[in-house]
Amino acid sequence: MSDEYDSSLVNAAAVNEEGISYNVLRRQPETVNAFQNTNFKFTLTRIPNVTFWCSSVNIPQISIGEVTVQTGMLPHHVPGSSIQLDPLRVNFAVDEEFANWNEIYRWMRSIVPFEDFTEILSNENNYYSEGTIHCLNSAKNPNKRFVFKKLFPVSLDGFDLNVALNEPEPVTVSATFTYESFEIENVT
Question: What is the mean pLDDT of residues 157-165?
Answer without folding.
Answer: 90
